[in-house]
Amino acid sequence: MRPALRASIVAVATVAIAGTIAPTVLARAAPAAVTTSSAIRIVAANRSIADASSKTWRPDAPYALGGRLTSTTHSVRRTASDALYQHARLGVTGYDVPVSTTGTYFVDLLTSETRGALPGRRDWDVTAEDQPVATDVDPARDAGQSTAWHVLFAVPVIDGVLNIRIVAQVGTPVVDAVQVNYENAETASSTLFSDTFDGAAGALPDATRWRFAKGGNGWGNNELETYTRRPVNAALDGAGNLDIVARHETYTGSDGITRNYTSARLTTVNTFSFQYGTAVARIRIPGGQGLWPAFWSLGANRSSAGWPLCGEMDVMENRGDQLSTVHATVHAAHKGATSEPWTSSTATNSASTLSSDFHTYGLVWGPGAMAMTLDGRTYFTLSASDLSPALLWNFNHPFFLLLNLAVGGNTAGPPDDTTPFPAEMAVDSVQVTG
Predict the structure, then answer these.
(1) Would you say the pTM of this structure is higher than 0.90?
(2) pLDDT of 48 higher than 60
(3) Which is the catalytic residue, given 113, 223, 225, 317?
(4) Which one, out of 171, 203, 211, 253, has a CA that is 20 to 30 A from the CA of 131?
């Protein structure tokens, strides 16, 4: 049991009583708590600030531990809410946030490097409820100068107060704002979905988990392959991997479309979907001009809402000619024009070619923000607070998973004589926790 929030702090004044001076106690109002229907949004300022969507962020003083308030006039990239990042608590050591009920809460620490610290000169760790939730936070390295960045994590709270602590490793930590949302009533992390692809070589993947999308209609991207459910395009290898194989062959699918390439696209539509949590896949992707491997997620309401209103989270995409580069992208819709997409994307480089070994690609997703990771390192973050009023946040409903290896298309371009076929995308495991 942790100490109660500093709601019992009192101010002492004096009044005259019968010719004597006696103290009287004036209670300070307790800070507002996160409820199941209402988030807490606080900013490092001595006044309330509205974000681009007119949501109010109240002063952080009742919640923050240590540090001093600073401000800047620098504009900030990757956000429409510059004001949230133009105020900061420099040297903050933590936050105590009351919650209305036992459950899991999703935390978004907004930060940015607007003070000119170079990579490696401002580095800090975060614990929540005495558990490590983020290490080696370095906004200058991970986001760049004057760029919005988010430290995201989910944490169970059982004692009425969410305790967040920030520990400096190098330099002085800086946090601009904090949002805490109720996520669900569970207080223990559980595995929602797991597949390690154990089975005999040549067997199809577990049909209770995975379905096959089939056809050669270009899939909205002018792709050149036909997706099939044949074992030569997707099967277990007998060593704990699922092999998705693109082949250079002439093939006519059941849709009557003839293509010169085949491959496979697997999906958990109608078998599994989830809302919030962490999704991780360990994959070795192929390299080669015109290859386009992906691990991604679509809104489970796609059949009724359509794309992009359903939302799309691309955890991993690679252009086969970019041997060390992974892309993370989200797609959603505009308000009042729900068939018109908006996109946010970031890329990062691996120390080695992605096709030379397995790498882990991850998604961290909560009610108001998300992050993508490569081998455990966050390289993409996005929060609803960063969006302009014209954009919808289409990420508050269940999503299903997809794995595929496309050939050609708008992103990858066509293969050429150097492209190796057959090309193999090996998936070692997929796991979702929440």
Answers:
(1) yes
(2) yes
(3) 317
(4) 171
